[in-house]
Protein backbone atom coordinates (compact mmCIF):
# COMPACT_ATOMS: atom_id res chain seq x y z
CA UNK A 1 0.00 0.00 0.00
CA UNK A 2 1.36 3.46 -0.85
CA UNK A 3 2.08 5.92 1.92
CA UNK A 4 -0.39 8.61 2.96
CA UNK A 5 1.50 11.01 5.16
CA UNK A 6 -0.20 13.66 7.31
CA UNK A 7 0.73 15.64 10.42
CA UNK A 8 -0.74 17.40 13.40
CA UNK A 9 1.00 20.28 15.15
CA UNK A 10 0.01 21.68 18.56
CA UNK A 11 1.64 24.97 19.52
CA UNK A 12 0.67 25.59 23.14
CA UNK A 13 1.65 28.30 25.60
CA UNK A 14 4.60 26.26 26.92
CA UNK A 15 5.27 23.43 24.52
CA UNK A 16 4.98 22.62 20.82
CA UNK A 17 4.39 19.08 19.51
CA UNK A 18 4.32 17.42 16.10
CA UNK A 19 2.87 14.01 15.28
CA UNK A 20 3.47 12.53 11.81
CA UNK A 21 1.21 9.68 10.70
CA UNK A 22 1.07 7.32 7.76
CA UNK A 23 -2.64 6.53 7.50
CA UNK A 24 -3.53 5.73 11.11
CA UNK A 25 -0.02 4.71 12.18
CA UNK A 26 2.09 7.18 14.12
CA UNK A 27 5.58 7.20 12.61
CA UNK A 28 7.18 10.10 14.48
CA UNK A 29 6.53 12.61 17.23
CA UNK A 30 8.43 15.40 18.91
CA UNK A 31 7.98 17.79 21.85
CA UNK A 32 9.85 21.11 22.19
CA UNK A 33 9.46 24.24 24.31
CA UNK A 34 7.44 27.01 22.60
CA UNK A 35 9.64 29.86 23.82
CA UNK A 36 8.95 33.49 23.00
CA UNK A 37 8.07 33.10 19.31
CA UNK A 38 5.40 30.54 18.46
CA UNK A 39 5.99 30.76 14.71
CA UNK A 40 9.69 29.96 15.09
CA UNK A 41 8.81 27.14 17.51
CA UNK A 42 6.38 25.66 14.97
CA UNK A 43 8.98 25.70 12.21
CA UNK A 44 11.66 24.24 14.46
CA UNK A 45 9.59 21.38 15.86
CA UNK A 46 8.27 20.42 12.40
CA UNK A 47 11.75 20.50 10.90
CA UNK A 48 13.14 18.29 13.68
CA UNK A 49 10.23 15.82 13.42
CA UNK A 50 10.78 15.57 9.66
CA UNK A 51 14.51 14.99 10.16
CA UNK A 52 13.75 12.10 12.51
CA UNK A 53 11.93 10.34 9.68
CA UNK A 54 14.02 11.63 6.76
CA UNK A 55 10.87 13.14 5.23
CA UNK A 56 10.38 16.51 3.52
CA UNK A 57 7.62 18.97 4.31
CA UNK A 58 6.04 18.65 0.86
CA UNK A 59 5.61 14.90 1.38
CA UNK A 60 3.01 15.64 4.06
CA UNK A 61 -0.34 15.69 2.26
CA UNK A 62 -2.29 17.55 4.94
CA UNK A 63 -1.27 19.37 8.13
CA UNK A 64 -3.70 20.51 10.84
CA UNK A 65 -2.61 23.01 13.47
CA UNK A 66 -4.04 23.39 16.96
CA UNK A 67 -3.15 25.15 20.22
CA UNK A 68 -3.08 28.87 20.93
CA UNK A 69 -0.36 29.40 18.28
CA UNK A 70 -2.31 27.64 15.49
CA UNK A 71 -3.05 30.76 13.42
CA UNK A 72 0.62 31.61 13.05
CA UNK A 73 1.86 28.50 11.22
CA UNK A 74 2.41 29.17 7.49
CA UNK A 75 2.68 25.49 6.47
CA UNK A 76 -0.60 24.36 8.11
CA UNK A 77 -3.57 23.70 5.82
CA UNK A 78 -6.25 24.07 8.46
CA UNK A 79 -6.74 25.15 12.09
CA UNK A 80 -8.82 23.20 14.60
CA UNK A 81 -9.47 24.01 18.29
CA UNK A 82 -7.61 22.21 21.08
CA UNK A 83 -10.93 20.95 22.43
CA UNK A 84 -11.67 19.01 19.24
CA UNK A 85 -8.08 17.78 18.87
CA UNK A 86 -7.62 16.57 22.47
CA UNK A 87 -11.02 14.90 22.26
CA UNK A 88 -10.14 13.20 19.01
CA UNK A 89 -6.68 12.09 20.15
CA UNK A 90 -8.01 10.67 23.43
CA UNK A 91 -10.82 8.81 21.63
CA UNK A 92 -8.34 7.37 19.11
CA UNK A 93 -6.23 5.98 21.97
CA UNK A 94 -9.23 4.81 24.00
CA UNK A 95 -12.65 4.57 22.29
CA UNK A 96 -14.24 4.19 25.75
CA UNK A 97 -13.17 7.74 26.67
CA UNK A 98 -16.16 9.92 27.66
CA UNK A 99 -14.45 12.56 29.83
CA UNK A 100 -11.12 14.10 28.81
CA UNK A 101 -9.18 16.26 31.27
CA UNK A 102 -6.45 18.34 29.56
CA UNK A 103 -4.19 20.36 31.84
CA UNK A 104 -1.57 22.33 29.94
CA UNK A 105 0.69 25.25 30.71
CA UNK A 106 -1.99 27.86 31.17
CA UNK A 107 -5.36 26.21 30.50
CA UNK A 108 -7.27 23.36 32.00
CA UNK A 109 -10.23 21.93 30.14
CA UNK A 110 -12.71 19.13 30.65
CA UNK A 111 -14.32 17.68 27.53
CA UNK A 112 -17.36 15.40 27.28
CA UNK A 113 -17.30 12.96 24.35
CA UNK A 114 -20.15 11.03 22.77
CA UNK A 115 -19.98 7.29 22.07
CA UNK A 116 -18.84 8.23 18.56
CA UNK A 117 -16.06 10.41 19.97
CA UNK A 118 -17.66 13.77 19.13
CA UNK A 119 -17.40 16.72 21.50
CA UNK A 120 -20.76 17.18 23.25
CA UNK A 121 -19.70 19.82 25.76
CA UNK A 122 -16.64 21.32 27.46
CA UNK A 123 -15.63 23.64 30.31
CA UNK A 124 -12.45 25.65 30.82
CA UNK A 125 -10.71 27.45 33.67
CA UNK A 126 -10.96 31.21 33.57
CA UNK A 127 -8.06 33.03 31.90
CA UNK A 128 -5.50 32.60 34.66
CA UNK A 129 -2.81 30.01 35.36
CA UNK A 130 -4.37 28.82 38.64
CA UNK A 131 -4.09 25.06 38.88
CA UNK A 132 -2.20 24.61 35.62
CA UNK A 133 1.31 23.59 34.56
CA UNK A 134 2.70 27.10 34.87
CA UNK A 135 1.39 27.22 38.44
CA UNK A 136 3.27 23.99 39.23
CA UNK A 137 6.46 25.31 37.60
CA UNK A 138 6.40 28.43 39.81
CA UNK A 139 5.70 26.33 42.93
CA UNK A 140 8.53 23.88 42.10
CA UNK A 141 10.88 26.85 41.99
CA UNK A 142 9.62 28.16 45.32
CA UNK A 143 10.17 24.69 46.82
CA UNK A 144 13.61 24.50 45.19
CA UNK A 145 12.88 21.23 43.43
CA UNK A 146 12.90 20.31 39.74
CA UNK A 147 9.45 20.17 38.13
CA UNK A 148 9.95 16.43 37.50
CA UNK A 149 10.74 15.93 41.20
CA UNK A 150 7.61 17.61 42.55
CA UNK A 151 5.47 14.45 42.46
CA UNK A 152 8.08 12.35 44.32
CA UNK A 153 8.50 15.06 46.95
CA UNK A 154 4.75 15.09 47.53
CA UNK A 155 4.64 11.27 47.61
CA UNK A 156 6.83 11.18 50.72
CA UNK A 157 4.48 13.45 52.74
CA UNK A 158 2.65 12.23 55.86
CA UNK A 159 -0.05 14.86 55.47
CA UNK A 160 -1.19 17.72 53.27
CA UNK A 161 -0.77 21.37 54.19
CA UNK A 162 -3.86 23.29 53.04
CA UNK A 163 -3.04 25.99 50.48
CA UNK A 164 -5.59 28.78 50.66
CA UNK A 165 -4.74 30.71 47.50
CA UNK A 166 -4.89 29.35 43.97
CA UNK A 167 -3.65 32.55 42.35
CA UNK A 168 -0.10 31.81 41.19
CA UNK A 169 1.31 35.03 42.62
CA UNK A 170 -0.39 34.73 46.04
CA UNK A 171 0.21 30.98 46.29
CA UNK A 172 3.91 31.55 45.64
CA UNK A 173 4.19 33.95 48.60
CA UNK A 174 2.08 31.58 50.68
CA UNK A 175 4.51 28.72 49.91
CA UNK A 176 7.51 30.91 50.74
CA UNK A 177 5.93 31.86 54.06
CA UNK A 178 5.00 28.22 54.88
CA UNK A 179 8.64 27.21 54.27
CA UNK A 180 9.76 30.07 56.55
CA UNK A 181 7.39 28.75 59.26
CA UNK A 182 9.27 25.45 59.10
CA UNK A 183 6.55 23.32 57.50
CA UNK A 184 7.96 20.30 55.64
CA UNK A 185 8.41 20.93 51.92
CA UNK A 186 6.85 17.58 51.04
CA UNK A 187 3.65 18.45 52.93
CA UNK A 188 3.45 21.78 51.12
CA UNK A 189 3.95 19.96 47.80
CA UNK A 190 1.14 17.54 48.71
CA UNK A 191 -1.09 20.52 49.54
CA UNK A 192 -0.38 22.10 46.15
CA UNK A 193 -1.28 18.90 44.29
CA UNK A 194 -4.44 18.50 46.36
CA UNK A 195 -5.41 22.10 45.56
CA UNK A 196 -5.01 21.44 41.81
CA UNK A 197 -7.04 18.24 42.09
CA UNK A 198 -9.78 20.11 43.97
CA UNK A 199 -9.96 22.80 41.34
CA UNK A 200 -9.91 20.34 38.44
CA UNK A 201 -12.58 18.19 40.09
CA UNK A 202 -14.75 21.34 40.26
CA UNK A 203 -14.50 21.61 36.46
CA UNK A 204 -15.30 17.90 36.06
CA UNK A 205 -18.44 18.19 38.23
CA UNK A 206 -19.63 21.14 36.15
CA UNK A 207 -19.75 18.89 33.11
CA UNK A 208 -20.61 15.69 34.98
CA UNK A 209 -18.34 12.75 35.73
CA UNK A 210 -18.66 10.01 33.14
CA UNK A 211 -16.22 7.12 32.76
CA UNK A 212 -13.84 6.37 31.15
CA UNK A 213 -11.86 9.40 32.22
CA UNK A 214 -8.68 10.12 30.24
CA UNK A 215 -6.07 12.72 31.18
CA UNK A 216 -4.06 14.57 28.52
CA UNK A 217 -1.60 17.51 28.48
CA UNK A 218 1.80 17.85 30.12
CA UNK A 219 0.51 17.98 33.71
CA UNK A 220 -0.72 14.38 33.33
CA UNK A 221 3.00 13.47 33.55
CA UNK A 222 2.89 14.59 37.19
CA UNK A 223 1.85 11.39 38.97
CA UNK A 224 0.89 13.26 42.15
CA UNK A 225 -1.74 15.32 40.31
CA UNK A 226 -3.10 12.16 38.71
CA UNK A 227 -3.27 10.30 42.03
CA UNK A 228 -4.86 13.24 43.90
CA UNK A 229 -7.46 13.59 41.16
CA UNK A 230 -8.26 9.86 41.21
CA UNK A 231 -8.77 10.06 44.98
CA UNK A 232 -11.00 13.12 44.69
CA UNK A 233 -13.14 11.81 41.82
CA UNK A 234 -13.06 8.21 43.10
CA UNK A 235 -12.42 6.82 39.63
CA UNK A 236 -9.45 5.32 37.84
CA UNK A 237 -8.00 7.75 35.29
CA UNK A 238 -6.57 6.41 32.03
CA UNK A 239 -3.11 7.84 31.26
CA UNK A 240 -1.92 7.69 27.61
CA UNK A 241 1.72 6.61 27.06
CA UNK A 242 2.65 10.21 26.10
CA UNK A 243 -0.18 12.49 27.30
CA UNK A 244 1.53 15.68 26.07
CA UNK A 245 1.15 14.77 22.35
CA UNK A 246 -2.57 13.90 22.42
CA UNK A 247 -3.62 17.27 20.93
CA UNK A 248 -1.15 16.92 18.04
CA UNK A 249 -2.21 13.29 17.60
CA UNK A 250 -5.87 14.32 17.33
CA UNK A 251 -4.89 16.98 14.78
CA UNK A 252 -3.03 14.33 12.73
CA UNK A 253 -6.05 11.96 12.83
CA UNK A 254 -8.29 14.79 11.60
CA UNK A 255 -5.74 15.57 8.85
CA UNK A 256 -6.00 11.96 7.67
CA UNK A 257 -9.80 12.25 7.55
CA UNK A 258 -9.52 15.40 5.40
CA UNK A 259 -7.53 13.41 2.82
CA UNK A 260 -9.99 10.53 2.86
CA UNK A 261 -12.87 12.92 2.29
CA UNK A 262 -11.18 14.56 -0.72
N1 LIG B 1 8.04 15.46 32.94
C1 LIG B 1 7.13 16.25 33.50
N2 LIG B 1 6.79 16.09 34.81
C2 LIG B 1 5.86 16.86 35.38
N3 LIG B 1 5.20 17.84 34.75
C3 LIG B 1 5.48 18.04 33.46
C4 LIG B 1 6.45 17.27 32.76
N4 LIG B 1 6.52 17.71 31.49
C5 LIG B 1 5.63 18.71 31.39
N5 LIG B 1 5.00 18.92 32.57
C6 LIG B 1 3.97 19.90 32.87
O1 LIG B 1 3.28 20.16 31.67
C7 LIG B 1 3.06 21.56 31.52
C8 LIG B 1 2.93 21.90 30.04
O2 LIG B 1 1.87 21.16 29.51
P1 LIG B 1 1.51 21.22 27.95
O3 LIG B 1 2.72 20.95 27.16
O4 LIG B 1 0.32 20.34 27.75
O5 LIG B 1 1.12 22.76 27.84
P2 LIG B 1 0.71 23.63 26.58
O6 LIG B 1 -0.09 22.79 25.63
O7 LIG B 1 1.91 24.31 26.05
O8 LIG B 1 -0.22 24.72 27.29
P3 LIG B 1 -1.70 25.23 26.98
O9 LIG B 1 -2.47 24.05 26.43
O10 LIG B 1 -2.22 25.70 28.29
O11 LIG B 1 -1.52 26.34 25.98
C9 LIG B 1 4.23 22.20 32.22
O12 LIG B 1 3.88 23.46 32.73
C10 LIG B 1 4.53 21.23 33.35
O13 LIG B 1 3.82 21.58 34.51
MG1 LIG C 1 -2.12 22.41 25.23
Summary, kept brief:
This protein is an alpha/beta fold. It has helices at 38-53, 82-93, 133-142, 150-155, 168-180, 185-207, 223-233, 246-261, and strands at 5-11, 15-22, 25-33, 62-66, 78-79, 99-103, 108-113, 119-124, 213-216, 237-238. Helix content is 41%, strand content 21%.
Shape: globular
| Poorly predicted sequence stretches spanning 5 or more consecutive residues | none
Number of H- or I-type helical stretches:
8
Bound small molecules, deduplicated? adenosine-5'-triphosphate, magnesium ion
Question: How much helix, percentage-wise, in residues?
Answer: 40-55%
Write the layout of secondary structure elements.
Elements: E1 5-11, E2 15-22, E3 25-33, H1 38-53, E4 62-66, E5 78-79, H2 82-93, E6 99-103, E7 108-113, E8 119-124, H3 133-142, H4 150-155, H5 168-180, H6 185-207, E9 213-216, H7 223-233, E10 237-238, H8 246-261
Parallel strand pairs: 1-4, 4-5, 6-9, 9-10
Antiparallel strand pairs: 1-2, 2-3, 6-7, 7-8
The structure holds adenosine-5'-triphosphate (ATP) and magnesium ion.
Magnesium ion (MG) binds at residues 12, 67, 82, 104, 217, 247.
Amino acid sequence: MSTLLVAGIDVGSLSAEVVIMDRRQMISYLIMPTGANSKVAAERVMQAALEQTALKLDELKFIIATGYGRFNIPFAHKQVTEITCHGRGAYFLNPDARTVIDIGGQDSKVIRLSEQGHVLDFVMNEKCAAGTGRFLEVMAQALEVKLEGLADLSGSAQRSVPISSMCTVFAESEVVSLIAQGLPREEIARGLHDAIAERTAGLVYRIGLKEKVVMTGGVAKNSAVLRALEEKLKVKIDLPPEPQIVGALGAAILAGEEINRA
